[in-house]
Amino acid sequence: MRQTALRLSLPLMATRARPEVWTCVDRSLSRTWQRQAIRYRERIAEYIGHLPDGFHRPDVPEHLVAGLSKSLSAYVLFVDSSVGEVRAEYPLDAPDTQRYTAHDIVLSKETSRSPQFRNGVHVVKVSVGQAPGALFLVMISATPFGGETFALAEHTAKLLALAQGMAHVRRLTVSARGVRLGVFQMLMGGQTVLAQRAMEGLSPGLLLAEHVRVYVIGTPLRDRDELVGALEPVTDRRALLVRCSARDDHVIVVEPLRHPGPTHPHTTRADLTRILTDAVTARPGCAMGGSRPYGLAEVSDAYSEAANALVSAHHTVARVGMFDGSSQPAPLLGEPAHRWAEHVPAPLLELPYVVRDELIGTMRIALDFPYTETARILGAHRNTVASRAARVAEVLGRDGTPLDLKDVRVRTVLHLALSLLRTWNPRDAGVPEQPSLSSILRSAPAGTWARGLLHPLRDAAPELSSTVRARVRCNLHIYDAAEAVGVSAATVRKRLRQAEALLQRDLSTGLSGAHALTPALATTTGEPRLPTPR
Fold it and tell me: Disulfide check for 306: which of 70, 186, 214, 370 has CB 3.0–4.6 Å away?
């Protein structure tokens, strides 16, 4: 028997106890093992109960460390020894002896993963992740650890390594989104070369296109992050997708337009339009507006068109609308209007081109949005936008008096001039006659355009038309318009929203709708009278 036991590496114990004493040994051992199994199961269940719901949260390490600490009734420390940074610890009121021992074993060269006894406490040290000697998980307890300690520590270390990896991915994602937003802000400011260079490191060749199309997606604020997360993978290397910095409920997509070829076989407008349309129609409360094709340096104009198209899309069944340009006056007014437009901002055009482009680029946006939103769109400070606007008012002023850019009529005239200037192709520079704004608005194309824009109001309730006219006369002030019409401010806002659906123009949030409505009213009714800046 001894030889057989030795060959099988089985221990033998000799005893003089009576045989009947051993009848209960098996039962006693089974009960002991059962109690240990129950205790192990309870600790595992308790540990699982402390795990976080998901690993997308930045506080996952704190949850994992706290869960392990509560399950083992021990002090747990998660530390980066390479820089001496404590990533997480629990409990925060652990005895100083345990804290000192934990830091001491982290700094030591000890690599054994078996339990140790130091300074009167029991210690377990586990490496986290693949990089040796960097991240460690240390457990300190006044009582010996159970057999399940190492298993729980290993699982926690793996989960911590996963959380660190996801945190790194999250940081890269946030950085990439920041770069995309910066690129969009450069495009809005007309800095196309800088935008192309900045985008090369993230998506090479994406902005190497002459023309782009802009989409603006409106979504409930609570759903924007989910929508962005769903669209980012499908728009990667195909379009520039950003969260709008001015409106928390908008997502902006800038699509480069190029003919399909061997280097870009999948970049077609139909594909991206279909993807965006499917994403919008599948989500209640979402709507999308798209612009016409524009040059890469004209993203700000494309953005304004897409934002206006979004207003229309909100009131359609499909919730998707593309701006067709039929309600734009600039392409219809002809060569005399272009000559007038060249004369209005002439002092700006005489400035050094760096200053000129900066001022004009800022004003193109500031005429459509309040200064605060303009600053967010451009990534600048509000005071910077206000300072540039003041410089434009000073340069374009008359007899030492700056332009009153708070007057909607002045803003409308300047907006029309810049729109005409953008679309102008010089023909004959020797034209002797300088046309006036009043003659331009009396032209047949201007009358046709104005009547077409205002036609939906003719068939609507009379109070809508009177409220819209009153708001323009009152320089867009809601309360003054309410007093002029004799209703409450809430009623004025309600009527403006109804007029928006008919005119397909933003009349309540932005300023672009007023820049179309004001010249249309001036053309058809003669009021308000539009001034000429110079």
Answer: 214
Tell me the C-alpha to C-alpha distance, in Å, between residue 498 and each of 312, 501, 504: 11, 5, 10
Tell me how far apart the terminal alpha carbons of the chain are, to the nearest angstrom: 118
Is residue 62 exposed (0-12), middle (13-18) or buried (19+ Cβ within 10 Å)? middle
Mean pLDDT by 10-residue block, N- to C-terminus, for the chain (534 residues)?
85 78 72 70 64 64 82 84 79 83 75 71 80 76 77 79 74 80 85 86 85 91 87 86 86 81 43 87 90 86 83 81 69 75 81 82 84 84 90 84 85 84 54 70 82 81 84 87 88 85 73 80 83 68
> Greatest CA span in the chain, whole angstroms?
131
Q: How far apart are CA 328 and CA 291, in angstroms?
A: 12
Q: How far is CA 156 from CA 150, 161, 356, in A?
A: 10, 9, 60
CB contact at 8 A, 251 and 244: yes
Q: Is the separation of the CB atoms in 239 and 255 below 8 Å? A: yes
The alpha carbon of residue 180 and the mean position of all alpha carbons in its chain are separated, in whole angstroms, by 9
**Element spanning 156, H or E:** helix 149-188
What are residue 124's DSSP bridge partners?
A: 139
Sorted by sequence, the CB contacts under 8 Å of residue 322 that are 6+ apart come out as 289, 290, 291, 292, 309
* Chain-centre distance for alpha carbon 95: 45
Distance from C-alpha of 492 to C-alpha of 508, rounded to nearest angstrom:
10
> DSSP alpha helices (H): ranges in 189-236?
192-200, 224-235
Q: Dihedrals φ, ψ of 88, to 5°? A: -165, 150
Cβ neighbours of residue 508 closer than 8 Å, sequence gap 6 or more? 493, 496, 497, 500
Backbone phi, psi, residue 295, to 5°? -65, 155
Q: What single-letter DSSP state applies at residue 130?
A: S
**How far, in whole angstroms, is CA 398 from its chain's centroid?**
42
Distance, in Å, from the CA atom of 313 to the CA atom of 307, rounded to the nearest integer, reads: 10
Q: How far apart are CA 108 and CA 81, in angstroms?
A: 10
In this structure, what are the phi and psi dihedrals at residue 21, rounded to the nearest 5 degrees? -65, -30
Full-model pTM: 0.65
| Dist. CA 532–CA 534, nearest whole Å | 6
